[in-house]
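Now produce a polypeptide, keeping tokens residue-aligned:
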Amino acid sequence: MNKYFIDVLRNHYADFKGKATRKQYWLFILWNIIVSLLITIACSFVPSAKTVVSAIYVLALLVPTLALFVRRVRDTGHSPYWGLLQIPSIMLSIFGNLPGSMLDSVKGLIMITLLVFLLSAIPILIFALLPSKQ
């Protein structure tokens, strides 16, 4: 966990320069999912804390996740501007942590963002799976 999750958070939090290997990218994503599940399980015992804790976690990991994806895209030999494909997923992460009363007012925007996210997920997956350029 230290090498692929904590190292990215500690040493490469907002590092958009350089490259990231497939292994580094996918192990960071795996540990991110595991930590998210642990937070969800822990917060299920205290429902009032779930929104706050998950919102803090999502906001804390937005920048390093985006930076890691940009480095991964650069490692495949493509323009780092492909990192803009992450914007819909960032927006959905933010919408997912809104209180229920606020969700009603942005339902249309959420649906549009979800559609764009689904369309952008294909190139994101392709970039994440491409081999590194030497």
